[in-house]
Amino acid sequence: MLIVAIFIIAYIAYVLSKQQSGESQSRTNQRMWAEAAHGHNLKLYPPNDQRVFPSMEGKIDGLPVQVWGDFDEKTGHGLVFCRVDFTRKLPLRLSIIKGDFPMESAGATFEIRGLTAPGISVTAANGKDLQNFLSTQNMNVLKNCMGSYHSTKLTESFLVLGAGGINDGMSFHSFIERTVSAAKALSGGTTVPVHPDLAPIPAVDDSKDIFAPVVTPVQEQTVISSAPAVPVTSPANIPPPKPVPAPTPLASATPAVKPEPVESSAALDLSAEGLSKALFSASFPGEKEKALFNGVIGQTVQWKGTLKSVYPYSSDFVFGKGPGAKATFEICEVESGYGVKNKVKATVSLGEETLAVLKGETGKEFTFSGTLLKMEPFSREILLEKGSLQG
Predict the structure, then answer these.
(1) Count of H helices and E strands in the chain?
(2) The pLDDT value given to residue 169
(3) Residue ranges matching CATH 2.40.50.140 in the chain
(4) 56-88: pLDDT as tens digits
């Protein structure tokens, strides 16, 4: 009897522990959604009888945005979806899908070199228009979306991305920012996201470097073929390649360009404009820029910027345990490849007391200081800890 009683007590303790853990996780998720809605100025709708997850809607940078949650039918895990509608339709009818979205056709089916991972469907009303649309930049954006997130759907009217593993405020914020950036680039906007490898992954892990640039020849990206895939040939049956004669140099050929010397972190200009230019001038900031930033982590800077958002946090993925205030400032604009101008932001961890100062002051300029902590190549953002307002 004693053994049975001990077992019953242990089981009750286990059930209560799981219930408390679930309630704690639920509160964390609700706070994460509330902070995201506040930070992006979106309207938040709580769960109801029809929806297990909250949802949000509004506009970001003038684009209509909807965010909602759902369960993966195969695994049962929670997913977060973000849809961005284009203010002007793309100049062709198309449907590019990866993931569990219902399959729909916009016309003929095409095979696109570079978008050949399992589960990807590409249909369009006109092959020539599709080829023109799949520029180097747009291919980079699509590969980035499909390689980084659980699911992707692009039509002439909107872009939807679905992500797993969104369980903290920073990854949620980044997911929404990246979806908007991708939509702006695909619709002719001003943000060009970084291009990672095309290895589909089930969830986003911000601790891993998935944004390393990959260079792909343009002709490999934009060739369209409606023919069936070529069967794989055994290496034993492949004939040895014929020797290719070396090309004869042209008299008018342009001399080889010497590689630019790599800038040292010690020589970096730590002003807002100087550091932003060093980190984000490349179309696809990568290892070089990260190495530069790693050399100045821990240094204190003082910048001016226009307040874009501010909200409290009790615990943050990057800044750690609060309480505190998380403020995002627009600090400058940097021109990168394709002649694109991108706005650079600084997100600063401030004391909780600064909420009273910054509340309702969005759009105004402030001077702030902080310690360099992290850079986000994709969203072109610099994170500072131990921040304070100046003046």
Answers:
(1) 8, 16
(2) 77
(3) 269-390
(4) 999 998 899 999 998 877 777 889 999 999 999
Residue 161 confidence (pLDDT): 95
CB of 201 closer than 8 Å to CB of 209: no
Give the integer Cα–Cα distance in Å for 385 and 350.
Answer: 7
The mean predicted confidence, pLDDT, of the chain is 77
Distance of CA 325 to the CA centre of its chain: 23
Which residues, in sequence order, are bridge partners of residue 321?
Answer: 315
Instruction: For residue range 193-203, list pLDDT tens digits in order.
Output: 333 333 333 33
Note whether 159 and 141 are within 8 A (CB).
no
Q: Are 309 and 41 in contact (CB under 8 A)?
A: yes
Exposed/middle/buried for 13, CB within 10 Å: 0-12, 13-18, 19+?
Answer: exposed
CA–CA separation, 140 and 47 (whole Å): 36
Mean pLDDT of 293-304: 96
| 0.90 surpassed by pTM | no
Q: What pLDDT is attached to residue 191?
A: 39
Q: Which two tokens stand for residue 292?
A: 């530069």
Structure tokens belonging to residue 293: 């930033």
Residue 34 burial by Cβ neighbours in a 10 Å radius (0-12, 13-18, 19+): middle
Instruction: Check if the beta carbon of residue 195 is closer than 8 Å to that of residue 188.
Output: no
| Residues whose CB falls within 8 Å of the CB of residue 195, separated by 6 or more in sequence, listed in order | 140, 141, 143, 144, 213, 214, 216, 284
CATH number of 269-390: 2.40.50.140
Altogether, the residues listed in the chain come to a count of: 391
Cα separation, 81 vs 100, whole angstroms:
12
Give the residues across from 164 on adjacent strands: 79
